[in-house]
Amino acid sequence: MDGTLDHTMLRVSDLEESLDWYQTHLEYEEKDRYEGDGFTIVYLGPEEMHEESAMLELTHNEGEDVELGDAWGHVAVRVPEGELEEHYEQLMDEGVEDYRDPESCGGRYAFVKDPDGHEVEIVQRDHGETWSLDHTMIRVEDADEALGFWTRKFEYDEVGRWEADTFANYFVEPREAADEAMSVELTYNYDGRTYEQGDAWGHLCVRVDDLADDWEQLLEREAPDYRDPESNDDMYAFTTDQDGHEIELLERDPEAVEAESLFPF
C-alpha cells in the first residue's frame, strides 16, 4: 500500500465563492474538475506541488448548504519560517476574517476561516510550497483506538505528539513519508466528550498501489467494509475509522497532477 495522503475533501455551500477564496488568498490553482449529476468536485493546490503533496478537494451539492460538525477540526497550510505575521497580515489586508491571530497563539501559528467556516490553520515550516497542505486535524473519542487504527490498518507511524492538561494532539503519517506530505492530526480531549460529524467535512483520501489487493488487506486487518470497490465501479473505495471519519482509497499516479485529468475514470 502506498499510503500517501492524496487529498482532504470539504463540502462547500457556494462553489464559486469558495473557489475565489482559496484561489485569491491561498493562491491555489484548479487542478481538475468533475461535473456529476447534481454535484461538482474541484481539486485545488499550489501551482508547484511535490509528488507526495496533498490536494484540497471541494465538493458542492446543488441546492444544499453545509453544516459544520465538531468531529473535524481544520486543515493546516504552510508558510516559511519567520513569515507567519507577514502572511497573516496579507490575509487581513485582503479582507479575510480575523479569527485567531499569531499573537493569540503565542506567535507559533494562526487561524482563519473560509466562507463556510472551515478553519484553516497557518503553520511555519522550512519545507513545502507556501500554502501547501501540512496536516488535517480530526477529533477522536479514544486516542488508543485512533492510534491503533492508523498504525495497524494503514501502517502509519506516530511522528509527533503534544500533551496538555486537558487534551493531546498526535500526528501520524506514512512510514518514510516526504516532508512535503500531509499528516493526520488526531486530537483527543480528556473529558470524554462525544462529537457530531456534520456534513461539511467529507473525507481523507489515501493512495493505494492496487485497489483490489489493498482493499482486501484492509478487510483482513478488520477495517470496516463501508463502500467496497465493486459498489464504486472499481474506481475507489471507502472505509471508516472508529469514529466514523470516512477514508477513501484511490489508485493515482502522482504524475497525474500534471496530466490532463486526475480522475481515474
Q: Give helix and strand order, one letter per element, not per position.
A: EHEEEEHEEEHEEEEHEE
* Structure classification: alpha/beta
What does the average pLDDT come to? Answer: 95
Number of domains: 1
Main beta sheet strand tally, sense and closure: 7 strands, mixed
Oligomer: single chain
CATH class: Alpha Beta
List the helices and strands and how they pair.
Elements: E1 5-11, H1 15-25, E2 29-35, E3 39-45, E4 55-61, E5 72-80, H2 84-93, E6 109-113, E7 119-125, E8 133-140, H3 143-153, E9 156-163, E10 167-174, E11 183-189, E12 201-208, H4 211-220, E13 236-240, E14 246-251
Parallel strand pairs: 1-4, 5-7, 8-11, 12-14
Antiparallel strand pairs: 1-12, 2-3, 3-4, 5-8, 6-7, 9-10, 10-11, 13-14
